[in-house]
Amino acid sequence: MDPVLDAAFFLRWLAAATEVMDREGDRLTELDSAIGDADHGINMRRGFNAASDAVAKEPPDTPGGVLVGVGRQLISKVGGASGPLYGTALRRAGKSLGDADHVTPEQLRDALLTAVDAVSELGGAAPGDKTMLDAMVPSVQAYGAALDSGAGLTQALAAAAAAADEGAAATIPLQARKGRASYLGERSIGHQDPGATSIALLIDAFARTAKGDADE
Amino acid sequence: MDPVLDAAFFLRWLAAATEVMDREGDRLTELDSAIGDADHGINMRRGFNAASDAVAKEPPDTPGGVLVGVGRQLISKVGGASGPLYGTALRRAGKSLGDADHVTPEQLRDALLTAVDAVSELGGAAPGDKTMLDAMVPSVQAYGAALDSGAGLTQALAAAAAAADEGAAATIPLQARKGRASYLGERSIGHQDPGATSIALLIDAFARTAKGDADE
Amino acid sequence: MKMLINGPDTVVADALRGLADAHPELAVDTEKRVVVRRDAPVAGKVGLVSGGGTGHEPLHSGFVGHGMLDAACPGEVFTSPVPDQMAAATAAVSAGAGVVHIVKNYTGDVLNFKMAAELVEDDGVEVEQVLVDDDVAVTDSLYTAGRRGTGATLFVEKITGALAQEGAPLAQVAAVGRKVNESSRTFGVALTAVTTPAKGSPTFDLPSDELELGIGIHGEPGRERRKMMTAREIAEFSLDAILDDLPPGGPVLALVNGMGGTPLLELYLFNAEVHRILGERGVQVARTLVGNYVTSLDMAGASITLCRADDELVRLWDAPVNTPALRWGM
Amino acid sequence: MKMLINGPDTVVADALRGLADAHPELAVDTEKRVVVRRDAPVAGKVGLVSGGGTGHEPLHSGFVGHGMLDAACPGEVFTSPVPDQMAAATAAVSAGAGVVHIVKNYTGDVLNFKMAAELVEDDGVEVEQVLVDDDVAVTDSLYTAGRRGTGATLFVEKITGALAQEGAPLAQVAAVGRKVNESSRTFGVALTAVTTPAKGSPTFDLPSDELELGIGIHGEPGRERRKMMTAREIAEFSLDAILDDLPPGGPVLALVNGMGGTPLLELYLFNAEVHRILGERGVQVARTLVGNYVTSLDMAGASITLCRADDELVRLWDAPVNTPALRWGM
Ligand SMILES: Nc1ncnc2c1ncn2[C@@H]1O[C@H](COP(=O)(O)OP(=O)(O)O)[C@@H](O)[C@H]1O
Ligand SMILES: Nc1ncnc2c1ncn2[C@@H]1O[C@H](COP(=O)(O)OP(=O)(O)O)[C@@H](O)[C@H]1O
Ligand SMILES: [Mg+2]
Ligand SMILES: [Mg+2]
Ligand SMILES: [Mg+2]
Ligand SMILES: [Mg+2]
């Protein structure tokens, strides 16, 4: 059965996200080393651990509260390009959920769209620029399309995760036009974008959280 | 037949010495790298090339003149420990020969003794301290002993070269007590002293010059 | 890779303690991670704040003091600081005359400083941003995040600092900063990659007979890799790129800057080539600074920055400055 | 090994040209290889000359100027200069009040300076030699060439320079130099070996997980090799060696010096450990200097020098100085 999207769900997602950043951080840093400055995994790890710690101290009791709390921590602990982008995206997504104590899968879609808009606005990138957007956009589309065609939350998040993964992989042949990787010009071609990869890990954490709940 | 020890002989020696420093400089530097600062070959090469150039411009016409000229060049071009030691040794040796236009093998012995005294006085080292003296002292002894037992110049210089070579090799087990190698304490044991090695090359250049002349 | 550290996690905090121990004339808040002139806020003076990732020392903390920055915010290694730091620094130096944020053009620095400006403007502090983007190695700004900010940051911080110290108003201080940036161009090369404490191994592989041309200061690879060149050839290549793009004009200020791992001896040697070539091309050098100022941890390499400087800029360059890394006239 | 040079043979000459280009306030004779204060000889003032192998920059050329050295003689890389240079430098700075030779205790430096002193004394210049031998890594002076001269050279040059600038007579300037040397101790460590331009490869092999304790500044291996240690452990080991030998007394001047290849960030971090440990041991630090001052080309590592300083020495340390590498108070 599909889980309820309440604060507890988002806290379980946060735990899964933090765990995956700890586990996969080195791979993200390695990707960032090829076309950036070799810190993306370190940044994500620091940010999600700070968020987990902060939230553990005073657990919010709404989905919006969790996302706003995580976003704020990322803004004030990560730095770099990903801190404000990730942080603002989650903060605005959380704000869009208001103070409902649980939300629908459709409300989550709107929140994810808000996140995409936040990243586009702040970073000025378009799809195809080889940034995190290249995983976010197809992922949110796939999620919405799945809901539209009658899928439940767990199934739709699985589709979102698969699309994010593909989107991240599809950054490999692209030449970067935003962020640090753009300095490399053509030499950025042939490497997967670290930010798109971490987005895929986060969406996958959503999907796994839902599936874990559903399997219980 | 033994050659005459005139200015031309010492100029041929200088050419041979310069050639051997060019050829063996890297080995001297390598030895100095193990227990010093990796420049002895470079120093010797710079010094003997400067001496050859200077002497080519205005060739001295006495043995003493050649040695004094070489010594002066070493003093003003080499630097380091070896510059003043080698330079003063040769300068004083040359001075001891006065302005005779040729000298006897016995006078050469006295000049070599003067050189040994110069190095001892200036550097304050004793035999066994793992310095150039450890090649000089046995070499001059062997030369004198050969003359005393009736050998000619060529033979005596061959004995001097062999003794210098042995003296240099015998520095391997010694612990350095003077110069840069002394800073290593016991870690200086097991390496051949670069200065003793270059002395052996120089004496060998004397022996080869004499032998080359004798063979003609 | 061996480093003189206690562990990768405490590098920034430990180094800030050491900075505080060495420079009692600076107020170092190791919690908030801001480094402030002890006499800040200076009454009536425009405040100057900069910041960026740690790993470029002495930039920026080493430029805090009389006649230069009022505060610096060091981020994690090669990671821009966070808005909280910048907001705290801005508050600490604000004397009512407004504050200039000197921001190197990197996505992270720009975004974080922007968020910080929003925070402090809510509290009524007027903020002007001066963006530094001098690195000609990044050419096509339509298809990139724009030119990086590198060596010219030193010129901008020194010259705005001098003008602010004289009591000039906010708009004028920001304007001279923009003018310095527009008049400056930089090109850098790396002979080795950089190793960050967290990663512990070089950020890219550079064969022992090649060099990277057009590197940044964060261990990013450059635009082009070539077989090793002589100092003269490197200077020629770099100056070609710079002079191609530098606005025409009179004399220049020259910064021959080490990336951290190159001995001062080589920097002076490189400076000789720079001067020789500029002489051949008829470019007059008004002032020269040689040393490790805008670095990239242990990276071997160097950058050249030229800034066209009229009499006013030269005067402000010469004005008294008293910081850990730059000090003259007082 | 890649270097920013034109070729190993011209390194010293090229770098001197670059020094001259950067510092018009110095008179650099690239032929004779002497670097002299442009206003030398200063009437009535005792002249101060030092010199040594090239490769320790900014030592000594970077310390020529008001309140410090009058002249420096750079030798070949890691090779003491020759008597001709020292004699030329001495003649250039001699104003009739005598000249002090500051000599680091290496066989080569001592012998060459001795020969130079004989030359200039023949011309009627009175010379006093101040020998610097502060390196406690060399312990048993009966069986060695005696302790090496390293970091304390900076203290000796600064403090004798200040006293000479005040017009003190020769004997007094030399005496304060000797007092500084006797009050100073240094210990250094290397994380990597050094590579000279001529050799082109590291002068010794140092495994990637070990460090050398008690190194000198010429790429000589140290007395002992250990598994890599933390900054705190290295500081503790070094300070144990120094404090064991340092004369008792009041506050100290502290120099936390980089060997050339270690980023400033790590030096500040190391300084934090030095201060923490000195605090624990009750040693008061009057002044601290952190940076690359007495280097060994690209060697990674650091040294600590402590100098017991009474009020007079602190006053002379604080006195105005204006050189390329050390500048304050003017
Ligand atoms: N303008 C931008 N818009 C969207 N995403 C961006 C932008 N700039 C950078 N990114 C993302 O940020 C990632 C890098 O994050 P990170 O390494 O943490 O920051 P930094 O580049 O400051 O070191 C990139 O892989 C890219 O996905
Ligand atoms: N006090 C001394 N007496 C005699 N020979 C010495 C003394 N000190 C050093 N040497 C010799 O000098 C050699 C080193 O010469 P070199 O490498 O050219 O000079 P430096 O040690 O200054 O680099 C040593 O191998 C040793 O033979
Ligand atoms: Mg990054
Ligand atoms: Mg040597
Ligand atoms: Mg970064
Ligand atoms: Mg030497």
Automatic annotation (TrEMBL), chains A, B:
Pfam families attached to this UniProt entry: Dak2 (PF02734)
Gene3D superfamilies with a match to the protein in the record: 1.25.40.340
Record domain DhaL: where: 8-208
Matching PROSITE patterns: DHAL
Keyword list, A-Z: Kinase, Transferase
Cited InterPro entries: DhaK_L_YcgS (IPR012737), DhaL_dom (IPR004007), DhaL_dom_sf (IPR036117), Dihydroxyacetone_Kinase (IPR050861)
GO BP annotations, alphabetical order: glycerol catabolic process
GO CC terms: cytosol
The protein's name: Dihydroxyacetone kinase subunit L
Species assigned in the record: Wenjunlia tyrosinilytica
UniProtKB/TrEMBL annotation, chains C, D:
Keyword Transferase included in the entry's annotation: yes
Annotated GO biological process: glycerol catabolic process
GO CC terms in record: cytosol
EC number of this enzyme: 2.7.1.121
One MF term in the entry's GO annotations: phosphoenolpyruvate-glycerone phosphotransferase activity
Pfam families: Dak1
Involved pathway(s): Polyol metabolism; glycerol degradation
Catalysed transformations (reactions): dihydroxyacetone + phosphoenolpyruvate = dihydroxyacetone phosphate + pyruvate
Protein keywords: Glycerol metabolism, Kinase, Transferase
Domain DhaK: 7-328
Top-level taxon of the source organism: Bacteria
InterPro entries: DhaK_1, DhaK_dom, Dihydroxyacetone_Kinase
Keyword Glycosyltransferase belongs to the record: no
Entries under NCBIfam families matching the protein: dhaK1
Record text on subunit structure and interactions: Homodimer. The dihydroxyacetone kinase complex is composed of a homodimer of DhaM, a homodimer of DhaK and the subunit DhaL.
Protein's name according to its UniProt entry: phosphoenolpyruvate--glycerone phosphotransferase
